[in-house]
Write a structure and sequence with these properties.
By secondary structure, this protein is α+β, with helices and mostly antiparallel strands. It has three domains: 56 residues, Multidrug-efflux Transporter Regulator, Chain: A, Domain 2; 57 residues, Multidrug-efflux Transporter Regulator, Chain: A, Domain 2; 61 residues, no CATH class. It is 45% helix and 15% strand. The strands form four sheets. The chain has a three-stranded antiparallel β-sheet. A hairpin with a 2-residue loop joins strand 2 and strand 3. Helix 5 packs across helix 6. The longest helix is centred in the N-terminal third of the chain and has 12 residues. It is elongated.
Length: 195
């Protein structure tokens, strides 16, 4: 029998039914196929395929472009704050319209968000991976930490003025999204004064 309740599908697939219920509110989750008493029935095969596709990291770029994202995910994609995204949504006529709502939450097409961002001439945030030490010849937080021989969290404390008030930390030379980038020579000069 292919039509099962969420609990039965969870038991069959080895997935917590509560997690499956949460997934059922996401765009693209298979629609119920019927009812048994008060319980909705879903196609086991369709749910299994959805869960497999969802966890498959080898999705094509076309699938990625057509992916629906929440406002927070869109903010992460653009390297902006959630508050900025709400402002763009409410005040900018060119901002993409939601293509779907799930439990009142708007979902946007990722490709439309990327296109909108490119049109307004802003760059998508640089990678925040702690291994990236340099972007366009400028140092990331990890790069500054490596240059000075300190922990990345210490760079953050220096940058906000929480450690050495006598020798102010150099201001970032540039920002890409939320990622601050520093000039290597300024960092070296600051490090030489510090030692």
């Amino acid at each position: 029998m292919d039509e099962l309740t969420m609990s039965e599908i969870g038991a069959s697939l080895g997935i917590d039914p509560q997690l499956l219920r949460k997934h059922s509110r996401q765009p693209g989750f298979p629609a119920p196929t019927g009812k048994r008493g008060n319980a909705r029935l879903y196609s086991l095969e369709a749910v299994q395929r959805w869960e497999t596709d969802r966890s498959n990291p080898a999705a094509t770029s076309e699938d990625e472009d057509n992916r629906l994202v929440t406002l927070q995910e869109a903010a992460d994609e653009l390297g902006l704050s959630y508050g900025s995204m709400r402002t763009y949504l409410g005040r900018h006529e060119t901002f993409p319209k939601p293509v779907r709502r799930v439990s009142g939450r708007p979902y946007f097409r990722l490709q439309e968000i990327r296109t909108w961002n490119a049109r307004r001439g802003r760059q998508v945030a640089a990678p925040t991976d702690s291994e990236v030490t340099e972007i366009d010849g400028l140092l990331t937080r990890a790069g500054v930490a490596a240059e000075l021989g300190i922990e990345p969290n210490s760079v953050t404390r220096y940058a906000v003025g929480g450690i050495d008030r006598l020798r102010p930390f150099p201001a970032p030379a540039r920002k890409v999204g939320r990622t601050r980038l520093w000039d290597r020579d300024e960092i070296r000069e600051w490090g030489a004064q510090r030692s």
